[in-house]
Amino acid sequence: MASKGDFHTHSTFSDGRLTPSELVDLAYKNGVRIHALTDHDTVDGLPEAFRAAERYADLTLIPGIEMSTDVPGNEVHILGHFIDWKDAGFLKKLTRLQESRLGRAEKMVAKLAELNKPVSWERVLEIAGEGVVGRPHIALALVENGHVESTNRAFDLYLSRTGPAYVGRERLDPEDVVDLIDGVGGLTTLAHPRELRAAGSLDDLLRRLKDAGLIAMEVYYQDYRPDEVETFRQLAERFDLLPLGGSDYHALGRPEEREPGNIPLPDSAINDYLAVARDRDSLSRARLAQAK
Ligand code: AMP
Ligand code: ZN
Ligand code: FE
Ligand code: FE
Question: Which CATH code, of 3.40.50.720, 3.20.20.140, 3.40.50.300, 3.90.1150.10, is assigned to 5-87+186-291?
Fold first, then answer.
């Protein structure tokens, strides 16, 4: 089951529970040699991850991000890999998104107070720590205060898209995010397509995103069953997208959670993706050389 690649993991810089360096260590221990850190809407964990990766001569750490985007009635998550994460314009955009997340989280806390399920805003920020504040942190605060017995319950009762305490984030079009990541040299992958397929909008979205420059789709994801993997593999093929995979590890101890590398992502898929990355690099270098 173990793969030498994992293209989707989270650290304390978003809503994961391991620091980037703990995460890199665990992934390496599990046999992962090509590892992407993909925190939600932030690249702030990357410096620490790269420092940790220096300890392993045979580890390739890929600078990544997972960006939340919106389509009517649903959220679409786009992974970016090989991004130029120090690009000033890109960082500015991320800072703006993080600020808007703060305001939005504060509104959700206010709604919870109105619902007679108060949590302290300071405590939510404390739980988020260095991480980009999100609903999982509010869910933990609800559990701490005894309003619900689990974070899943917090989502079911209050925080899901249709829940009474939900407030939307700043809306981003998936196509715009594909462009944004493309603009900083990154390759884009549609994350965890199962929910989108259930909502019935996946084919249309894939057509649009392929046109926008999407490269891959997560097929070997977390706990997807073999028949689901096969369905998504065929779908990726139909839309001329590379099949990719990741554990989406958060260290939350959820039953469906897979440790880094504990996914059936085959070497052939890893190699095909890395080949595109190499091609792209040489292409952009060639373009730069021509521009000079
Ligand atoms: P946010 O970016 O603040 O909207 O929070 C989104 C995150 O909340 C996702 O990345 C998941 O980790 C988590 N999440 C979303 N829906 C649920 C759910 N129904 N149960 C548990 N966690 C969820
Ligand atoms: Zn997450
Ligand atoms: Fe996601
Ligand atoms: Fe994720």
Answer: 3.20.20.140
CA atoms within 13 A on the CB side of 206: 23
C-beta of 155 in contact with ligand 1 (< 6 A) = yes
- pLDDT for 1 equals 67
With vertex at residue 159, the alpha carbon angle to CA 156 and CA 160, rounded to the nearest 5 degrees, is 65
| 164 Cα to the center of ligand 1, angstroms | 15
**60, pLDDT greater than 70:** yes
* 75 CA distance to ligand 4 middle (Å): 12
Cα(14) to centroid(ligand 4), Å: 9
- What digits encode the pLDDT tens for the residues 204-253? 999 999 999 999 999 999 999 999 999 999 999 999 999 999 999 999 98
pLDDT tens by residue, 73-88: 889 999 999 999 999 9
Question: Which residues have C-beta under 5 Å from ligand 3, the single-atom ion?
Answer: 77, 191
Please work out whether the CB of residue 243 comes within 6 Å of at least one atom of ligand 1: no
DSSP 77-135: EEEEES--TT-HHHHHHHHHHHHHHHHHHHHHHHHHHHTT----HHHHHHHHTTSPP-H
Domain boundaries, given as residue ranges, for the chain: 5-87+186-291
Atom in ligand 1 nearest the alpha carbon of residue 250: 12
Is the minimum distance from the CB of 152 to ligand 1 under 6 angstroms?
yes
Say how many Å lie between the CA of residue 40 and the centre of ligand 1. 11
